[in-house]
Amino acid sequence: MDTDKYHVQFHDTLGQFADEFYDNKPDVDNADDVQVNLGFNTPNINAILDYQVVSVTVPLTTGWNLISLPGTPNLSAPQTILEDIAGTYKVVFAYNGCTPASPWTKYDPLAPPMPTT
Predict the structure, then answer these.
(1) 10 Å Cβ neighbour count for 89?
(2) Are 23 and 32 in contact (CB under 8 A)?
(3) Confidence at 117, pLDDT banded by 50, 70, 90
(4) In the chain, where are the structural domains located?
(5) Of residues 40, 58, 39, 42, the one with CA closest to residue 7
(6) What is the pTM for the complete model shown?
(7) Which of 5, 27, 55, 83 is the 20 to 30 Å CA partner of 91?
(8) For residue range 22-55, what is the model confidence (pLDDT) as tens digits?
(9) 21: number of Cβ within 10 Å
(10) What is the largest CA-CA distance in the chain?
(11) Taking the alpha carbons of 32, 35, 36, 41 in that order, is the dihedral positive or negative?
């Protein structure tokens, strides 16, 4: 690289995190210049990326529906994932084949919360 001012973009190739430019700027038009000098390190050009916001619409029919989320949610609490459809379902079951002793879990929005220890 030549000695010059650059705009530095941070990009997650897996798409889990949102892109940004240096100093938490959303796009190249607002990006801060980073001075780079040939033959020298340019320290402290880092980023902490935010999770990519993804909205998913799943059409449901009356009765039972078997659905799967197309990814791993950042916040996995059922009430968080289902907040946009709160009041429109009675119970939600989840299956995790990696826990063979007890693969099914149940979320009932009317049940009292589990005590925490």
Answers:
(1) 13
(2) yes
(3) low
(4) 1-53, 58-112
(5) 42
(6) 0.49
(7) 55
(8) 999 999 999 999 999 999 999 999 998 888 777 7
(9) 20
(10) 66
(11) negative
* Cα gap 105→95, rounded to integer Å: 7
* β-sheet bridge partners, residue 83: none
Alpha carbon distances (Å) from 64 to 23, 58, 78, 92, 93: 47, 13, 17, 10, 11
Instruction: Report CA dihedral (14, 15, 18, 19) to the nearest 10 degrees.
Output: 60
Contact of 88 with 58, CB cutoff 8 Å: no
Report the chain's terminal Cα–Cα distance, integer Å: 54
| Distant-in-sequence, close-in-space partners of 37: CB < 8 Å, separation ≥ 6 | 3
